Amino acid sequence: MKTLVIGSGGREHAIAQKLKQSKHVTHLDVIPGNDAMTAIATIHPEIAENDHEAILNFAKTNEIDWVIIGPEQPLTEGLTDLLSESEISVFGPNKAAAQIEGSKAFAKALMEKYQIPTADYREIDSKTEALKYVQDCELPIVLKKDGLAAGKGVIIAQTRQEALDAVDTLYPNENEKVVFETFLEGEEFSVMTFVNGSYAVPFETIAQDHKRAFDQDKGPNTGGMGAYCPVPHIGEDVLRQTNERIAQPIAHALEKEGYDYFGILYIGAILTKEGPKVIEFNARFGDPEAQVLLTRLESDLMEHILELKEKQPISQQWKQDAVVGVMLASKGYPAAYDKGSLVSGFETDLEHYFVSGLKRDANQSFVTSGGRVILAIGEGDSIEAAQKKAYERVTKIESDGLFYRKDIANKALKS
Ligand code: AMP
Ligand code: GLY
């Protein structure tokens, strides 16, 4: 089977690595890919991820059987729709269904209609009204910009003044779409779910991301600074509740409303006193959750995609080992950062690193080209052992331009 992955980050690096091991995959291309993927796939840096026509042409010319779309942008911009019109099989929802990630207002309205547990909310479309609302709303209050924001469009205001400032930030114009929601207390976790219409099968392993930039969950929100799996202190009962109260109902809701969802649905949940509640849905694998989950997945990802297509049982097998991934990011990220810093020390051990933001310079050395740069992976028979291994691999990396959190997976050790 000729398979094409779309994307250039660490998530796509992990998807490509996993597909490479599949008994079904005979040839693997990545558009655009990155320079660290060349040992596992043919990369195509000359084709842009948002050049849908060029991707379609490539897929037709090369008789691609399956396209696996990694990032949210091509999904919300309709790449699946375009490829499907030419009878190319695509793993990743179409434009209408991807609104579940692309529009916070859409996702909230759907959850409200189908009574899927989430924070109470209201959508406010004018700055004047928003300023009035935050004068006497309960605090903390969570403000979410509608539309894609790479994990950075959310402000949690603790004080009245922060709430007023947040309104200023999220309403550059009088009319903007912003969701205001109640602050939920509890631990966050991520559940990837295979979805085909109303058929939904969650991954049997939960992962936990670390969204804030600095240790002890301080600093601004990022795309994710590290992840691990399994999450031993968030037990099987929570996964079962997440499936019954969130995964199954949202798949039914999408189908009932006429959306044709096929792909991964990412459930970002928070474990409150009343059980799991939805923080966000994404229309694709999490990054860096995919890197740790696909490292731990023993069974064949492509086989699971084919099983999902036929709505057959998805017989997941997971390794015993725990997996921890620590992200090294450019100093300054998620705000402005410099590019072009030399990074070395990992090249001979690439199977334990997933690369998001590196490219080769004229001397063939790796230099930074993005905010999140490289994820160091550790495996071990306990979270502690996997964490130790991951940090050993972090220290092998030499660079002046990077920073990382020192407490990835600590939540699993405390309990
Ligand atoms: P989102 O982009 O919706 O996932 O939000 C980014 C991050 O903000 C989440 O991972 C949470 O850490 C935090 N967050 C979002 N909504 C809430 C909420 N209602 N209560 C508490 N924290 C939240
Ligand atoms: N790690 C969070 C996300 O992929 O959205």
List descriptors.
binds adenosine monophosphate; 13 helices; D-amino Acid Aminotransferase, Chain A, domain 1; five-stranded parallel beta sheet; alpha+beta; 23 strands; Dna Ligase, domain 1; Rossmann fold; 415 residues; binds glycine; six-stranded antiparallel beta sheet
Report on this model:
There is one protein chain. With 415 residues, the protein is an alpha+beta fold. The chain folds into four domains: 2-95, Rossmann fold, CATH 3.40.50; 126-176, Dna Ligase, domain 1 (2-Layer Sandwich); 187-309, 2-Layer Sandwich (D-amino Acid Aminotransferase, Chain A, domain 1), CATH 3.30.470.20; 322-414, Phosphoribosylglycinamide synthetase, C-terminal domain (Glycinamide Ribonucleotide Synthetase, Chain A, domain 4). It is 30% helix and 29% strand. The protein contains 13 helices and 23 strands. It has helices spanning 10-20, 52-61, 72-76, 79-85, 99-102, 104-113, 127-136, 160-170, 236-256, 289-296, 301-309, 383-396, 410-414; strands at residues 2-7, 27-32, 42-43, 66-69, 89-91, 121-126, 141-145, 154-157, 175-182, 187-196, 199-202, 208-209, 212-214, 218-221, 226-229, 262-272, 275-282, 322-330, 353-355, 358-360, 366-368, 372-380, 402-403. Strands 12, 15, 18, 19, 22 and 23 form a six-stranded antiparallel β-sheet that branches. The chain has a five-stranded parallel β-sheet with strand order 3-2-1-4-5, with helices on both faces. A four-stranded antiparallel β-sheet has the order 6-9-7-8, sandwiched between helices. Helix 1 (10-20) links the parallel strand 1 (2-7) and strand 2 (27-32). Helix 1 packs parallel to helix 10 (289-296) and helix 7 packs antiparallel against helix 8. The chain is globular. The N and C termini lie far apart (45 Å). The mean pLDDT is 96. The structure holds adenosine monophosphate and glycine.
